[in-house]
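retry 2 of 3: previous attempt timed out while embedding octanoyl-coenzyme A. Reduced batch size to 1 and resubmitted. Inputs unchanged:
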Amino acid sequence: SSAHLKVDHDQTTGVAVMHMQSPPVNSLSLDFLTEICITLEKLEMDKGCRGLIITSSQPKVFSAGLDILEMYGKSPERCGEFWKAVQEMWLKLYGSNMVTIAAINGSSPAGGCLMSITCDYRIMADNPRYSIGLNETMLGIVAPFWFKETMVNTVGHRNTEISLELGLLYKPAEALNIGLVDQLVPEDQVLSAATQTMTKWLAIPEHARQITKSMMRKSTIEKLRSNREADIQNFVNFITKESIQKSLRMYMEMLKQKKA
Ligand code: CO8
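retry 2 succeeded.
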């Protein structure tokens, strides 16, 4: 465990539960992403850990996605460092040999949705106040190709096209309907349902399951792996544009107003 992550690793079942606890909304800052990557690396190396459940300790929110403040008013160097950490988290999660389950106990926009769809299975709290989706266009920004492909691999081309162009955030029932999540359960049962599902997945012959997972995801992962530098440059050039900075500022103001 580290400052913003509580990891409960049950040695007898081989299942680790990673609780995100970065107040107020588990937004993914460079520091938090780095913590997540270090923890994932350790768990991945640990032969005694075969399954990972990701959940949130914060009320009402799984993760608010990338920390918008990391993309606003920052130097190109810093933006590049940030983006490299986002890539790293995605590569570690999407390429994990562990069985990964997202126990989505709150809202999960943008980067929070990305984290969820890197997992093998998603269980969401059946609370209509929560939503999940890749809403980047609503911020005036564009989900990169590897966000898009992870989404296509989850809900198919047409659902992805609609949801990305419109920047849709889906209520749990809608998310279930398009296959963005796999199961809805009452809020207080998200973690126990994830544990139950984990048992099923861990009963499959491990090597066969891992090779199959890798086969399904390899081409998407390779595309980013072999283009990391160009993807960073793309991001930095895009996000530091005056017009994009303005969109982000307006979006942040809108968030504050909604609150007031
Ligand atoms: N980054 C930074 N700060 C955030 C973020 C965020 N993503 N989300 C919320 N906050 C802040 C709020 O501004 C607020 O700050 P303050 O207390 O100072 O006013 C505080 O966190 C609490 O937020 P709320 O009061 O809004 O909390 P609620 O519980 O009412 O709502 C939500 C929680 C639903 C998560 C809500 O905060 C929300 O909708 N947040 C915005 C989520 C969002 O749109 N994230 C998108 C981030 S972009 C991304 O992840 C992918 C980018 C890909 C880049 C591609 C570029 C090329």
